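## retry 2 of 3
previous attempt timed out at serialization; input unchanged, resubmitting
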Amino acid sequence: MHTIPISQPIETHTRQSSVALIARQAIVNAQGQVVGHELFNRSRNHAAHTAASDMMLALTALSHAGVDELMGETLIFVNCTHESLVEGHLNLLDPRRVILEIPPLGHTAAEEVKTRLPNLQALHERGFRLAFNQTVLESAYSAWLPLADFIKIDLSVLPADQVTVLVKYAKRQTEARLIAEKIETAAQQELLSGLGVQLFQGYWLSRPQLVEAHLQFPTQASIDHLMHLVRGAASHQDIANWVKQDAVLSFNLLRLLVTSGICPPDGPMSVEHAVSLLGHNRIGCWTELLQTFRVTSDFTPAPARSAVLCGRYMELLARAQQLPKIVCNQAFMVGLISQLGELLHISAPAISSLLHLPESVRDAVLQQAGYLGALLSLTQTLEFSEEAKVEHAALALRLTTHQLHEARSKAMEWAQVA
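## retry succeeded, writing output
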């Protein structure tokens, strides 16, 4: 999962993992089906609500290792600051999943509405759907109204007669879907249903639920050097080489590819492929967030070292056979992912699903199928079997004992450096 626990203050931590507390409140349709969740950061008060905390809340929810049990396939409504809307960090979010809740401007609305408009239009053009509260129906916000995909009607601040007038006006002036929020009684829901509102949120329907997001942290050294590479316009290969030396960083980056909404249908073919798809800008934005929150580990856990060792060993064996580069890169990914279960405390099938792995990698990890699966089987045989079985497995792959020992030695040296 992503590396920043939103339940912690912005200061340096030196643990290998932690738990973030995210509150979610359901948004339901007229049939009572959950269509989305609004997220709340229970560890921060209103004053601590910042552009960075907006983004980390969304990233944590989207990328933690239990994303399906947290959100399923529903929409995610995230409260934003106007500052967060102009940050490049939005490139890290999948606009198909995330609804941006845009706050009103207060007494400065008349002056700022036009100033903010181009950025809101750009977000809309990029595919983000925007939600506003009922103030967007005021004349001062008329330029924003065509951008509204959702309008929230807050029943806690409006009397019943005003709610009726406002809803009727909204249905005449906009095609936005209306959400009645802060519903606390059956009578309120019946009133809004009678007015044609079809989405509802409030204590009467669902109280916010706390969900634990288990987080894994890369080392501060990994983050710092990654930023150094990005700022120095290092090649994608150099960046990938560094990422591959940290199992947590590798997992987070592969997961980021998925949560950004740019993962190809067939999945990332390798860490190198993921780096290339994300590009310098997204990786730089992501790394800046990690540095901003300064939540890291001061050591590399043993399962992480085992994962990069296994990945590197398989990669070197594939190279020894002079196989195509893509096969060697995939061999690393198979070895790495096969060892992540102990580190992340989730099953191999769950990891495969989270990372949207290509079929060849998934089958190798889960079924030891194909060449990559046979190579993984050989690697595991080296750990647990006598020499005769090792030689037999190596022979089947046309590898010599010398190649096995040489690759093992180089992999252990590489992993120790990592």
